[in-house]
Amino acid sequence: MGLVEINPGLIIWTVLTFIVLMVILRLVAWKPLLGMLEERERTIRESLEQARKAKDDADHLMTQHREMLAKARQEMAAIIEKAQRDAEQRRSDILARAQRDAEEKGRQFAEDLERQKRAAIRDLKEETVGLVLAAASRLLASTLDEEKHRTLARGYLEEIGKLPPPS
After folding, report:
1. Cβ atoms of residues 164 and 140 within 8 Å
2. What pTM value is reported for the model?
3. pLDDT, position 2
4. What burial letters (b/e) apply to 19-58, b meaning 16+ CB within 10 Å?
5. What span, in angstroms and rounded, lies between the C-alpha atoms of 24 and 22?
6. Better-predicted residue by pLDDT, 150 or 68
7. Is the distance from CB of 157 to CB of 130 less than 8 angstroms?
8. What is the sign, positive or negative, of the torsion defined by CA atoms of 136, 140, 145, 148?
9. Is residue 127 within 8 Å of residue 114, measured between CB atoms?
10. Contact assessment for residue 146 and residue 133, using Cβ atoms and an 8 Å cutoff
């Protein structure tokens, strides 16, 4: 009996033992192993589905975040633009008000100057009347009273006043 000899009884018992062992393994171990593999496959599939859903949610949130940022940037740009327009309008208003105030001050100054000029001319005429009277009374030494002298001098000054002013 060597190692290479064929023994039909041993072959039958080996095949029979193998078949019995396969039936026992199928009944006892194969179903639980297949069940564990199917459970593991289902768990992996669910995990992949959850990961895909989480990724989709994250993508959706990222898109919303980008849209919100873009909207915030637009609002910020609109606020800045409005502030610039308001500042320009206020600047224009301030300049216009300053221009009006300057024109008003200039007009008031011109009116004051004209009033002072008229007052100075009136005072000058009055003094001139007094000087003319004094000179006339010394020269004439006549019997005219002071009121007549004043009337004559005023008439003379009114005639001078009607003349066009020197250029």
Report:
1. no
2. 0.41
3. 62
4. eeeeeeeeeeeeeeeeeeeeeeeeeeeeeeeeeeeeeeee
5. 5
6. 68
7. no
8. negative
9. no
10. yes
Please report where in the chains the tokens 């005429």 appear, as a residue.
Answer: 125
Amino acid, res. 44: I
Please state the three-class secondary structure of the chain as a single string. CCCCCCCHHHHHHHHHHHHHHHHHHHHHHHHHHHHHHHHHHHHHHHHHHHHHHHHHHHHHHHHHHHHHHHHHHHHHHHHHHHHHHHHHHHHHHHHHHHHHHHHHHHHHHHHHHHHHHHHHHHHHHHHHHHHHHHHHHHHHCCCCCHHHHHHHHHHHHHHHHHCCCCC
* Letter string b/e over residues 108-131, b meaning 16 or more CB atoms within 10 A of that residue's CB: eeeeeeeeeeeeeeeeebeebbee
Q: How many Å apart are CA 148 and CA 152, to the nearest integer?
A: 6
Say if residue 160 is exposed, middle or buried (CB neighbours under 10 Å; 0-12, 13-18, 19+): exposed
Mean pLDDT on 105-134: 85
Give the whole-number percent of the chain exceeding pLDDT 90: 53
